[in-house]
């Protein structure tokens, strides 16, 4: 069986994530020794919209909108691809892992599936909607129609401890192992959220972790309001969710309200 997160596939498309947001990828690559693979996708739907003169851009100097031609869009996408390649190369250099970069033209969902391999963690940006970040249609399809673990990036990587939800499933056991590894690498504690019916595990888990510092929060309900309430006053770097809590709206609400990167393991 391929090792968990043996390969990290960063899916780039317009607009690109910030270098700060990619710090979560750096930490995961360092801990797992993952090969980094970058894929920049020239979104065919955007190109078709430009052909039909349905694509508009805002001039950063004048603030006026103008129609974006196909040629102008292709130039913009080419520049973004070059920047994405530089971001990937910098990540690989600082983590001392192998990397590979390629570009493709098509839909984000189709091209991601074409390139992703067994053992891959797929890294996706979330789109900005007003003042919040949400999972776009491609991310929703990858959540519902594939079995890949997925990392949805927040706006930045906060210097804090990782957090995870432990509910006894195999995925949450993987999450605990990964969370401990990240916490050790960062020299931080680990925050574990437990459902009320598993509260007794707060006594057993520290022994499993060999006395590593673990903080616990008991949740009466596993929903967004209770999760946000338990996490909002903590200094966190990443939230790891098991597949049993797979819910687009839950990820959107947690990720947006707390501005966290969210990793879904399965």
Can you put this structure into words, describing what you see?
Mean pLDDT is 82; it is low at 58-62. The protein folds into 2 domains: 7-152, 3-Layer(aba) Sandwich (Rossmann fold), CATH 3.40.50.620; 161-265, HUPs (Rossmann fold, 3-Layer(aba) Sandwich). The protein has helices at 23-32, 44-51, 70-95, 108-115, 137-145, 170-186, 201-208, 224-231, 248-258, and strands at residues 7-12, 35-43, 56-58, 65-67, 99-106, 120-124, 127-129, 132-134, 150-152, 161-165, 190-195, 214-219, 236-242, 261-265. By secondary structure, the protein is an alpha/beta fold. It has a 10-stranded mixed β-sheet, sandwiched between helices. It has a two-stranded antiparallel ribbon with strand order 3-4. The protein has a two-stranded antiparallel ribbon with strand order 7-8. The relative contact order is 0.15. The chain contains 9 helices and 14 strands.
Summarize this structure as a short list of keywords or feature phrases.
266 residues; alpha/beta; Rossmann fold; 10-stranded mixed beta sheet
Major sheet attributes = 10 strands, mixed
CATH class of the largest domain: Alpha Beta
| Name of the CATH superfamily of the largest domain | HUPs
Q: Which fold does the CATH topology of the largest domain refer to?
A: Rossmann fold
Arrangement of strands in the largest sheet: 5-2-1-6-9-14-13-10-11-12
Stretches where pLDDT is under 50 for at least 5 consecutive residues are 58-62
Question: Percent of residues in helical segments?
Answer: 25-40%
- How does CATH name the architecture of the largest domain? 3-Layer(aba) Sandwich
What would you report as the Rg, rounded to the nearest angstrom? 19 Å
DSSP, total strands:
14
Number of domains: 2
Strand residue content:
25-35%
Q: Kindly name the structural category.
A: alpha/beta
Q: Looking at the structure, what is the overall shape?
A: globular
